[in-house]
Design brief:
One of its GO terms (cellular component) is membrane. This protein is α+β, with helices and mostly antiparallel strands and 350 residues long. It has eight helices and 19 strands. It binds adenosine-5'-triphosphate (ATP). The site of adenosine-5'-triphosphate (ATP) has 23 residues, from helix 3.
Length: 350
């Protein structure tokens, strides 16, 4: 789908994006006859954090323009609904944007990351040769904003603008999920299975309560929950059985669920996931051990297993098709699924 169009004028390539006014949904870009330092496309979810993202963004724009506008072409693109950020990102990359910056929570970042890929391959710029890369940026303004926590970033847009102004970049890993059918799906933060994924599924309905949504989601997920026997295959080796699994979490970064440091050794730049498996947890274990899960000191707790992997395949032994899977806090579907790391897949502004 064409998300925005660049009016074509007769001029030497490249054609660049320029948008000095914002519009809901599709954008029209003017050309500039020269390339300034960078073309930045901001992808804003106005409904993020129960509408707070849109309000904060409005307040932020004058400062953003004064801080970055002299050196960069600034383009604002508002998402009109789920998945729109994926299309905006693909189009921006094809048109040669220097950075696509997600403005919102982990869900918006997740969609922008998925926009860096198309049919299993990285999206590339149409007419600037193989050397041009589009960087990923983030202004964290969501409910949980868990990915940002790994880097110690707060929901502070001014800090984020400084990072963009400095323009320090490094390559980070991305996870790819392939189920039995359909397109590969990408994640940047944490993918998780069973109880936590079910909790996240329910939490999305309570975002108006801020971080309390995770508590309400967890309460609902416990209703009718039972631990299940799973089999896993790590790095394409032998299948192993893990009995009575409560949750299995695959971290490219460390935090999920609004600040729980579930995969405390994960590092998005090291070419590995950290997998943490909780087995045979009862509801009261979460009460007794919750502080450890938030602090990331739970790896020494009984029935907690952790390892570093490049790929992991997970199936339920009973094959009920009812084990929830989420990635970056977004409901993905059900088991079976395979998760692989794509080392250094995206350049990120940090
Ligand atoms: N215009 C829109 N209207 C409704 N939903 C939207 C719109 N644009 C994007 N979305 C959806 O909103 C969801 C949540 O957005 P986002 O992650 O930015 O905020 P959040 O859920 O409050 O934060 P977090 O994920 O960090 O907890 C995304 O999954 C996205 O698909």
């Amino acid at each position: 789908m064409m998300v925005y169009r660049v009016a074509v004028v007769a001029m030497a390539k490249p054609s660049f994006l320029r948008a000095d006014q914002s519009m809901a949904g599709n954008l029209s870009f003017e050309h500039t006859s020269y390339k300034r330092r960078g073309d930045l496309v901001f992808v804003i979810n106005p409904k993020g954090a129960n509408g707070r993202t849109g309000k904060e963004w409005k307040k932020l724009v004058p400062y953003l323009r004064s801080r970055l506008g002299r050196d960069c072409n600034i383009c604002e693109s508002f998402t009109s609904g789920p998945s729109h950020a994926i299309d905006i990102t693909r189009e921006a990359i094809r048109e040669g944007a220097d950075a696509v910056i997600a403005v919102g929570g982990d869900g918006t970042l997740h969609e922008v990351v998925n926009g860096f890929f198309w049919e299993g391959k990285p999206v590339s710029t149409l007419d600037q040769g193989a050397t041009h890369t589009t960087a990923l940026g983030l202004i964290p303004l969501g409910t949980g904003s868990d990915f940002a926590r790994t880097f110690g970033w707060k929901n502070d847009p001014n800090e984020a603008i400084e990072r963009i102004a400095k323009g320090m970049k490094s390559r980070i890993d991305v996870g790819v999920i392939s189920g039995k059918s359909g397109e590969p799906h990408y994640f940047i933060n944490v993918a998780d299975i069973h109880l936590s994924a079910k909790a996240g599924y329910h939490a999305s309905r309570y975002k108006r309560f801020g971080n309390l949504c995770y508590f309400f989601g967890a309460l609902q997920a416990f209703t009718g929950h039972s631990n299940r026997d799973l089999k896993i295959k790590v790095n394409d080796e032998q299948w192993e059985i893990f009995s009575q699994v409560t949750a299995l979490c695959i971290g490219n970064a460390k935090f999920f669920g609004g600040g729980m440091k579930i995969t405390p050794n994960a590092d998005p730049c090291n070419g590995n996931f950290e997998v943490v498996i909780l087995q045979d947890f009862k509801w009261y274990d979460f009460i007794l051990k919750l502080h450890k899960l938030y602090k990331g000191t739970h790896l020494s707790v009984k029935n907690v297993h952790s390892r570093s992997v490049q790929s992991i395949e997970v199936e339920e032994i009973a094959g009920s098709g009812s084990i929830y899977v989420q990635s970056d806090g977004e409901h993905l579907g059900f088991l079976p699924q395979k998760f692989c790391i794509l080392p250094a897949a995206i350049e990120m502004i940090h």
